[in-house]
Amino acid sequence: MLERNHYIRISMISYFTKSKVALPSTTLKLDDWLNDIKTGKWRKVIEALRTKEDKAFTLVKNNLPCVTVSGTFKTRDVHTPLDKKLIQHSGFICIDVDKKDNPKMRAVDLVDKDCYAQFVSCSGEGKKIVYRCSPVSTAEEHRRIYDAVIKRLHDKGIKLKADPVVKSIMSLQYVSYDPQLYFHPKTKLVVKPLPPIKVSQRLQPHIKDLDVELKQLNDYVDNLGETDVTKSYED
Questions:
Q1: Alpha-carbon distance 60 to 3, whole Å?
Q2: Does residue 81 carry a pLDDT above 90?
């Protein structure tokens, strides 16, 4: 069982039966979810997953339960504005470090002793690093928290490439199994968003052109609907 810290507020997260489901099935305490990973609630399915490869691996993984570590949500529907689906930010962010991006990395090595938690990913080769952070209400602020975490690691001389997908406030994290899960509830580290980047006046015309291109890109994405344009997790 994990050591509890009653001085830290209870942080809730949304639980989804699998990644393709838009509506959460329930809410959980973040610490309870971490404890379930440590004590083996999903041990059998995770150990079975780690023996599979390619399409079989992807099929099983896509059907694993998952959570939104950074908060509770009414839905993950892409067409719903964030302010209509975010219930409350949890005050946590989870960084995803994959083996494929860090071939020399060992999943069991502790990256940052001041993180809130770290555990081996469902594949058995990557790692998840959970940090306490300032609760925010916008996607832009959350992305700047991610940037602050990456800057912290860089400043500490830790050369790891993290998955940029977790910049999203709605990023999903799959369940896993790690009996050696690192848990530091008394950490004093609270990551704050980096300041917004100031854009000079001479760049403003180029920013406007970029806004037009981004709108076109969003239109393309909307027209795809539920079409899956990737063949595998790596894509």
A1: 31
A2: yes
Phi, psi (5° rounding) for residue 72?
Answer: -105, 145
Residue range 100-158, pLDDT digits in tens: 899 888 989 999 999 999 999 999 999 999 999 999 999 999 999 999 999 999 999 99
Is 232's pLDDT higher than 50?
no
Please report, for residues 25, 61, 178, the alpha-carbon distance to residue 121 in angstroms, rounded to integers and kept in the order given: 22, 11, 8
The pTM for the full model equals 0.82
Q: What does the alpha-carbon distance between residue 12 and residue 34 come to, in Å, rounded to a whole number? A: 12
Where would I find the H helices in 30-81? 30-39, 43-49, 54-62
- What are the tokens at 211? 């806004």
Q: How many H-runs (helices) and E-runs (strands) does the chain carry?
A: 6, 10
- The pLDDT assigned to 218 comes to 64
70-85 residues labelled b (16+ CB within 10 A) or e (exposed):
bbbbebbeeeeeeeeb
Q: Is residue 214 classed as helix, strand or coil in its secondary structure?
A: helix
Q: How many CB atoms lie under 10 A from the CB of residue 123?
A: 19
Using left for φ > 0, alpha for ψ between -120 and 50, and beta otherwise, residue 155 falls in alpha
